[in-house]
Amino acid sequence: MSDEITIAVAKGRIYKEAIPLLARIGIVLKDDPEASRKLMLDTSWANVKILVIRTTDVPTYVARGAAELGIAGKDVLLEYADDNLYEPIDLGIAQCRMMLAGLKVAAPVVDRPRVVTKYTNITKNYFAGRGQQVEIIKLYGSMELGPVLGLSDWLVDLVDTGNTLAANGLVTLDHIADISSRLIVNKAAMKMKNALIKPIIGQLADIVGDGS
Ligand code: PRT
Ligand code: MG
Question: With bands split at pLDDT 50, 70 and 90, how would you rate the model's confidence at 211?
């Protein structure tokens, strides 16, 4: 069995915070992802490679064992829950909140409000928990436009500063979940490559002050 470890890291804002965290435990990028076209980046640990991929693809790579470890947002993990994953550490990076939002000046709430979101499972579970019937409309971005253009009554999306909502005349209506990025581990790899994976988990847990 190979003693290689691949860490799938979500690109974008998670990547920006994850790479410094990995560097603090000695896993330092050797390739410059800006300069290189390589998709598998070499690190200072000869047997550790870093894969930088779309956030929504990270659970798939790790659950199916194409990568042993991953770093992904809790939003993505809630949306694409998978039994083949452990989630041992809250890394505390890329923090934000999953919120229900609507127009500041809104029409009265109708019987079955329409909600735009790219997080259809999270939204379905949230409204099921409230015992409220809604129509969920899937979008892939710019959810803020839903209520503004009358496509929906509400939206469910991530909020950090609140500037995006405010700039579009929207306000938060309810807090659905606190979101941050998590280390995820393929369950089979956790057994098979425990001697390699356990120290990585332990060191990351130490520097972020979380984990078991
Ligand atoms: O293409 P896609 O947007 O899906 O991914 P991406 O490759 O562009 O990744 P990126 O960089 O957007 O990062 C996505 C991940 O970062 C999410 O899965 C979260 O775990 C995490 N994260 C943390 C956020 C935010 N904060 C955040 N504020 N992801 C998105 N936002 C967006 C939000 O959707 C809204 O459009 O920022 C806007 C709100 O920000 P404020 O500051 O105006 O409130
Ligand atoms: Mg984005």
Answer: low
- Ligand 1 center to 195 CA (angstroms): 34
Region 140-153: mean pLDDT is 96
Q: What are the strands of the beta sheet with 5-10, ordered from one edge?
A: 40-42, 48-53, 5-10, 69-73, 181-186, 85-90
Domain holding 127, by residue range, is: 96-179
> Which tens digits make up the pLDDT trace of 86-133?
999 999 999 999 999 999 988 888 899 999 999 999 999 999 999 999
Token pair belonging to 200: 């990585």
191 and 147 in a common domain: no
Spatial separation of the C-alpha atoms in residues 72 and 52, rounded to whole Å: 11
Are residues 197 and 141 part of one domain?
Answer: no
Q: How far is the CA of 196 from the centre of ligand 2 (A)?
A: 32
Domain count, the chain: 2
The DSSP 8-state label assigned to residue 70 in this structure reads E
Share of residues in the chain with pLDDT > 90 (%): 90
* Ligand nearest, relative to CA of residue 56: 1
